[in-house]
Design brief:
Largest sheet: 7 strands, antiparallel
Number of domains: 1
CATH superfamily: NADH Oxidase
Oligomer: single chain
Strand content: 15-25%
Helix content: 25-40%
Shape: globular
Radius of gyration: 19 Å
Bound molecules: flavin mononucleotide
Order of helices and strands: HEHHEEEEEHEHHEHE
Strand order of the largest sheet: 1-6-5-4-7-9-8
Number of strands: 9
């Protein structure tokens, strides 16, 4: 097969992957249907969590009371940030909660979680990591957002994972040379834990996971806009470098999206 035929086959396969499969008796049985226990809704943390300043208290409330249509006008991808500005912990907390906070459990044995974003089958197969460059009171480094620590509350807790060596250089490398992203105050990296969806939808999960991911991205961007912060989502990232820096095995969990957040220049 020549290169052109290979390319055409890949495009045909990828186009077909985007289509909804026929739902029929012939579909393979999922682990949920086999009565296997559901996977955890988040990762086990290793060190004491840091509670971010609340965004719900009047004194810290960073949210502008916009009309929804104003918010839609405000959202724009920003690629030039004020390098010396600082994010407040409350701003970061609000964005993280709007992305993946857990409002409640549902189902038998707490099999499902409800969050500010929708997710096919309420599976929410994502984890959130934060490369902090400049957030008030947080040392520079990589953090993990632990939504399972605060079910049904708007409290936001994160775990410090490690200091990033040469953070600007490392963030730029993770984002395939997109230097401007290393001027943002924080970059969120979303990873996918595919089994959380596969448990319910087996081989039909993966198309749905990608649809889910867009909802998470949109909540982050609109939340940033409501704080008068800029954001830009990125599908261009170095898979191997991101997985290595985030400490992911690349099979059961891997990077799927990155979003820069910061004060526009
Ligand atoms: C899935 C997705 C991936 C994107 N990846 C990148 C990226 O890697 N780098 C970048 O600079 N912008 C990226 N963008 C931003 C788009 O370029 C931007 O949304 C588009 O130009 C429209 O501009 P607007 O967001 O200001 O409306 C991405 C947007 C989406 C939705």
């Amino acid at each position: 097969m020549n290169n052109n035929e290979n390319l055409q086959n890949t495009i045909t396969n990828n186009r077909n992957f985007m289509k909804c499969p026929e739902f029929s008796e012939a579909m393979s049985k999922s682990d949920q249907e086999k009565n296997l226990p559901h996977p955890p809704h988040g990762k086990k943390t290793q060190s004491p969590l840091i509670d971010l300043h609340p965004f719900t208290e009047r004194a810290h409330n960073p949210i502008h009371e916009d009309s929804y249509s104003n918010l839609l006008d405000l959202r724009r991808s920003v690629r030039a940030y004020d390098k010396n500005a600082q994010l407040t912990q409350s701003q970061l907390a609000f964005i993280l909660h709007s992305a993946q906070g857990i409002q409640e459990y549902r189902g038998q044995n707490e099999a499902f979680t409800l969050r500010p974003v929708p997710s096919g089958g309420a599976r929410h197969p994502f984890e959130t990591y934060i490369a902090v460059r400049n957030v008030d009171g947080l040392p520079q480094g990589l953090y993990y957002y632990a939504p399972t620590a605060n079910i049904g509350s708007k409290k936001v807790s994160i775990e410090f994972l490690k200091t990033l060596r040469n953070p600007d250089e490392q963030i730029t490398k993770m984002l395939v040379g997109q230097k401007w992203a290393a001027t943002a105050q924080a970059v969120l990296f979303l990873s996918c834990v595919p089994y959380r969806s596969e448990w319910r939808y087996s081989e039909h999960s993966h198309r749905v996971i990608l649809i889910d991911l867009g909802h998470v991205g949109q909540n982050i961007m609109l939340s940033a806009a409501s704080l008068r912060l800029g954001s830009c989502c990125m599908a261009a990232y170095d898979q191997a470098v991101c997985d290595e820096v985030l400490g992911l095995d690349g099979t059961n969990e891997y990077t799927v999206y990155a979003i820069a957040i910061g004060k526009p220049q």
